[in-house]
Amino acid sequence: MQTRKKYIFLTFLASWLLLFFFGGDQLRRFAFFSGRKAEARRSWPRWTDRSLLKSFAEPEELQRDGDPSLLSPRERRVAWLSGSRGSRCRMETCFDLSRCERHGFKVFTYPQERGQPVSETYSKILSSIERSRYHTLKPEEACLFILSIDTLDRDHLSGHYVRDVGEKIRGFPLWNGGRNHLIFNLYSGTWPGYTGDLGFDSGQAMLAKASFDTSSFRPGFDISIPLFPREHPQRGGDGGWLRHDSLPPKKKYLLVFKGKRYLTGIGSGTRNALHHIHNGKDIISLTTCKHGKDWEKHKDTRCDKDNVDYERFDYQELLHNSTFCIVPRGRRLGSFRFLEALQAACIPVLLSDGWELPFAEAIDWGKAAVVGSERLLLQIPSALRCIPPERVLAFQQQTQFLWDAYFSSVDKIVHTTLEIIKDRLSPHRSRSRFLWNALPGGLLVLPDFSTHLGDFPFYHLRLGYSPSEKFTAFIRAASQAGSLSQPILRLIQAVSGSQHCAKIVVLWSCEKPPPPSWKWPQSSVPLSVIQGRRGLSDRFFPFGAIQTDAVLSLDEDTNLSTSEVDFAFSVWRSFPERIVGFPTRSHFWDPEQGRWGCTSKWTNELSMVLTAAAFYHRYYHSLFTEYLPAGLRELVDGLAACEDILMNVLVAAVTKLPPIKVTQRKQHKEGVAQQAGCGDGAAGTPQPGQRSPRRFSQRQDCLNQLADWFGYMPLVSSQLRLDPVLFKDQVSVLRKRYPSLERP
Amino acid sequence: MCASAKYNTRGPALIPRMKTKHRIYYITLFSIVLLGLIATGMFQFWPHSIESSSDWTVEKRSVHDVPVVKLPADSPIPERGDLSCRMHTCFDVYRCGFNPKNKIKVYIYSLKKYVDEYGTLVSNTISREYNELLTAISDSEFYTDDVNRACLFVPSIDVLNQNALRIKETAQALAQLSRWDRGTNHLLFNMLPGGPPDYNTALDVPRDRALLAGGGFSTWTYRQGYDVSIPVYSPLSGEVDLPERGPGPRRYFILSSQMALHPEYRLELEALQAENGDSVLVLDKCTNLSDGVPAVRKRCYKNQVFDYPQVLQESTFCVVLRGARLGQAVLSDVLQAGCVPVIIADSYILPFSEVLDWKRASVVIPEEKMPEMYSILQSIPQRQIEEMQRQARWFWEAYFRSMKAIALATLQIINDRIYPYAAISYEEWNDPPAVKWSSVSNPLFLPLIPPQSQGFTAVVLTYDRVESLFRVITEVSKVPSLSKLLVVWNNQNKNPPEDSLWPKIRVPLKVVRTAENKLSNRFFPYDEIETEAVLAIDDDIIMLTSDELQFGYEVWREFPDRLVGYPGRLHLWDHEMNKWKYESEWTNEVSMVLTGAAFYHKYFNYLYTYKMPGDIKNWVDAHMNCEDIAMNFLVANVTGKSVIKVTPRKKFKCPECTAIDGLSLDQTHMVESY
After folding, report:
1. Which residues form the Glycosyl transferase domain (chain B) (predicted)?
2. In angstroms, rounded to a whole number, what is the distance separating the alpha carbons of residues A500 and B278?
């Protein structure tokens, strides 16, 4: 029994051992872990000798980088410049940078020739260029040339088609093979192919063209512009339609389309398929067969029913009530629909394969549009439904920002084109992609001011900076006395008492020379005097003496206390992009006279803060001097007034927000005089004669002229005033940070 | 089965004299063992279908053991690369399909050794870097082992370095891949393109429609939106550990470290050096190094010897000039050192330029302007230089550091093209972690002042204080801009009063009954809230007049992304349930307003309910407390902006005033604070 047992156990043992020896491995994987094995995938093998593998290139080879090429770089560049044919053009081969060096970026438009028809749209483009700050009348200064021949419509079946462009161009003495020329075009090619052909040899000229095809687009050289209608406003332009950020950001419909269905020819593939996604509920895709002369010839079975459905919906209504809008290709790649959807905050779903999107060099369309593929139309609905609501909301807001920043007027489209070209000329002083795609947009941010984003007032929160903790007090002295008056001494005293004050700069705009330095009050804060010109716009010149982010703009007769300054500055640090100040004005629409008016009466609203006592970012000095056309500054200098209105209008146009009023001690600036009209606490010459009715009407005029230049009224009204937290609360004065604000 | 049954029957005969129970016991055991043996045998000698799949994962193999493929001399060669290829013309999107994860599937061909007719190797089987790259793809989410489900194919033929290739035979090897199909959806990685004398800027191997991830593209060879521009990997970065160096001024201003420079460039650099003295350093290779010192790790200037790449950390700007090729490995070294690259290579397509904003990390200077380099660089503000240094290092860490980083970034770029609606944003690509951490991207970034006509919805959270609730409703209903009143009935044990008992008001009144008594119910984004503005108000806040509330709403309209509230001391009606303590009520700063009476955007309800980080929501619900603090933190966290306190009526005649705190609560991160 015992031995037998032993044998049996031995057999057992042996057989188990055998079992594990042969099959353990498999058993482990198949029997016990079969579930996991099924998922385990065959991955790239871990080679036993992977550490012995050779590198793809020896370090020596990498650092030597072949033999230094035989062709010298200079010769290569010369060869590029001479040998580049049109289709291979790049900035470094077809554009003469040296023309732009001496006079900077200047644009010359050819003078109009008599008897030459120019379409309405093209004359808008030309006048946009003439309104631009880069325009020059001297061809020898110019860096970029624009033809006066209308090249917008190059469809030779069209009525606007201009014949013999090629010959005319070659006749121009400045043409130079098209070098440094920019040609605008909206329509090219014709039925049936609709190719990008312009019908003349554009040589080495850059093209700013709508419906650009990626395969003919010369990257970094051409510019794709949007297709815009004839009625597109010259300047200003309508705002976007998004009035509020609703959540969930859904509208009545998810996706809409209403348009032609091409029965034959180019683009019909996509348009023919659109009706498939129509579900009658939240996806409305309506097509009509009616287009062209002979549509009935190609008519199919759907047509009659589709045509009936088509009439049941209104296009504008669909635009207003849909979250997404299909923007399919037409015969050409771009369509009016794109800008329409953008304005309506209807997120464009692009079905236009191979379209080089407008200004794609600068604009990140992935944030504002869904770039679909014509081939995957049927996936679009499910893909759209998967987009999370916060992303949809971000899309909607971005469409509005882009519309307003780059597309809402011909001016904006043309100026964006010019700025993109200007950026290419000096890549080290250009806008980063971030800048183009963040508020307030590339046109309002001047890289010549700074290339560091923290130097602008717009990006603090987004990039985690905070505005500097010091400010520069900037006092404009313009009294005729020529000596230091009591108010200015008091003011310097009060301002230098602030711990945040880095410097006091006095702009001496009197005829008499400033008093010698020992006459100025001594204080811990450095004080410097700048001899200014007489012009009022001078006070917003970007003086090198101003180095802090914040500028406290003051008139010599302003009466402020240190507490007020400190509090206003702390408020400004929360709103670095706005004007923060004390005395305010408001504007209103006067329906009787059909014009804008402004008032300083005690109203419940405010839309301007006088620059006689206000904090703002020093960048606005640069913007005022460089972005605004010289004409507006001359207007201000001529009127000797209104510079504060212009500044407020400018800041409001940039931020789309009202200025901020902060609390002020009760007793001062309650003068009755100010309640009369739109008093100009800023002009600095407080003589009673200056406040004549004539002057008052000048200020009204000025407001209207500004609104005209901007194309709309940028000012925004506010109803509130900011106080310190414990202001007038019933606690001990000792606990308050700004106790003197409440002292009578 | 049959065999084991036979053994069973024979069992009793082998051990005849055993007791029955023992017998059964042994028999069972034996049969199990035998069954096991048989099963093992079956697995062992089963045909190879099961076997072959296991050798991939388990068996350790050498690169030299891979199967050999002989390429006949007349096997087909693909067409040359088609310059007009774009995603919509040459790429088959149907293979990728729609999937909820929005991830493309990538298949890797198994490794083969290719020989020509005479048995000579076509190329090195695989380089270390390419093996790393394929391993990284294989370990990533993109990988699939199912060739039929794949959307993108990566050949295992290593074409990283064109110098190591026989061009015609490599092309033939590509053409015989099982799914080649004119190269559709195939992705090739190449870092050193071209060869002497003219050094083409793209891989010379004919590849038909295949996508090319190449280092050193020029604008003429790069097919925008189709190819991917990748960096030239520098193996040094794996060997040398350069610790990150804080941004700031460094010993040299401009440094050039490249060895193979065209004499013309070198002359220009030396002219710069002569003009600007010690702040410019132009290094060259060392001529008199002792044996055993690798030349690649040393650089010399006159008699001074410098360690490379360590010397790069000594300079603010580092020149990256084109050599024979446009793409230079030194770019990777320079970024690693946190030195700002000054890229002088006309027409060069920078690595990953489709997604990376190089203007934030580098300075690009046209070759023609090289003599002006010093003054151009001098004009860059110091703060920007520091940021560029940080950005450069971040680019290296995220996209240059290893073959894995390069491979994944490339696949992500292609993935973003195919699923653009799920693409990675500019910020995710470009913001370094420090910026991601300290910055906020306000979800309500568009400056809109909502129309007054829209009004607001008042949300009253109540438990059972009906009398006080009715008073609140009556008070609130007097506010002109109120458009709807929503009562959240948080008491499951008690029904809300009958309809007839509720006060009659001019706006719709809805009662929402909740399933659980949770404080978070107050912040749920109810569909009934149709306005943007929400007034959260407790059922015991009765001292706010309609003017005050109306003014609060007007203030909110001007700051729709902020919380607009009233001071805490209003909250004194009934403290039985709530044990809040606000000790320093009278301070000079406000960082929070109570949600006992506050206006805010409905968006924050959505965020509070669905996007609140961590377990804050659960904590609040469990402790029945702090929901207002959580809300305040949430708003400050996403917008970076402070709250606004609206002054209630007081002894002085200024009801239309608001107060703002001196300091904002910006960038308080929730994770930190909890």
Report:
1. 456-671
2. 39
Strands (E), B491-625: 509-513, 533-538, 564-565, 597-601
- CB-nearest to B234 from A60, A62, A722 is A62
Whether residue A483 sits in one domain with residue A629: yes
Q: What is the pLDDT of residue B666?
A: 31
Q: How many residues does chain A have?
A: 744
Tokens of A428: 């080290």
pLDDT in tens, A175-222: 988 999 999 999 998 888 888 888 888 889 999 999 999 989 999 999
Among A349, A396, A338, A339, which residue's Cα sits nearest to residue A377?
A: A349
Query: Tokens representing A33?
Result: 């872990």
pLDDT tens digits, residue range B193-248?
A: 988 888 899 999 999 999 999 999 999 999 999 999 999 999 988 888 888 888 88
Does A288 share its domain with A166?
no
Round to whole Å and give the CA distance between A213 and A334. 9
Residues A711, A606 within the same domain: yes
| Domain identity same for A267 and A330 | yes
| Cα B455 from Cα B449, distance rounded (Å) | 12
Instruction: Please choose, from the candidates B204, B267, B375, B364, the residue with its C-alpha nearest in 3D space to the C-alpha of residue A92.
Output: B364
Q: Which residues of A touch B191 (CB under 8 A)?
A: 56-57
Residues A262 and A197 in one domain: no
Tokens, residue B46: 């089963």
- A567: CATH: 3.90.550.10
In a domain, A196, yes or no: yes
For chain B, the structural domain boundaries read 68-229, 239-400, 454-645
Binding-face residues of A in 654-683 toward B, CB within 8 A: 655-658, 663
Residues spanned by the domain of A388: 253-407
Pairing state between β A584-590 and A608-609: antiparallel
Q: Taking CB atoms and an 8 Å cutoff, what residues of chain A touch B43?
A: 23, 26-27, 30
User: Residue A446: inside a domain, yes or no?
Assistant: no
- Residues B662 and A726: their CA atoms lie apart, in Å, by 11
Amino acid identity for residue B426 in this structure: Y
Q: What is the DSSP string of A81-129?
A: HHH--GGG--HHHH--GGGGTTT-S-EEEPPPPTT----HHHHHHHHHH
* Domain co-membership, A184 together with A282: no
Indicate which of A5, A8, A65, A450 best probes the interface with B, i.e. most B CBs within 10 Å of its own CB.
Answer: A65
Cis peptide before B447 (omega within 30 of 0): no
* Rounded Cα–Cα distance for residues B531 and A245 (Å): 9
Residues A195, A261 within the same domain:
no
> Does residue A489 fall inside a structural domain?
yes
**What is the predicted ipTM?**
0.88
Within a domain: A641: yes
Amino acid residing at A389? P
Q: Least CB-CB distance to B347: which of A90, A214, A244?
A: A90
In order, the DSSP letters of B446-507 are S-----GGG-EEEEEEESS-HHHHHHHHHHHTT-TTEEEEEEEE--SSSPPPPGGGSPP-SS
CA proximity to A741, closest of B645, B43, B659: B659
Is the C-alpha dihedral spanning A218, A219, A223, A224 positive or negative?
positive
What mean pLDDT is predicted for residues A409-418?
Answer: 96
The second-level CATH assignment, the architecture, of B454-645 is Alpha-Beta Complex (3.90)
| Closest residue of chain A to B144, computed from CA coordinates | A41
Give the residue from B25, B258, B605, B660 with the most A CB atoms within 10 Å of its CB, the best one to mutate: B660
Instruction: Please state the domain count of chain A.
Output: 3
**Residues A628 and A503 reside in one and the same domain:** yes
Tell me if B543 sits within 8 A of B614, measured CB to CB: no
If we measure between CA atoms, which residue out of B392, B376, B368, B373 comes closest to residue B312?
A: B392
d(CA A291, CA A668): 71
Q: What's the whole-model pTM score?
A: 0.88
Look up the CATH architecture of domain B239-400: 3-Layer(aba) Sandwich (3.40)
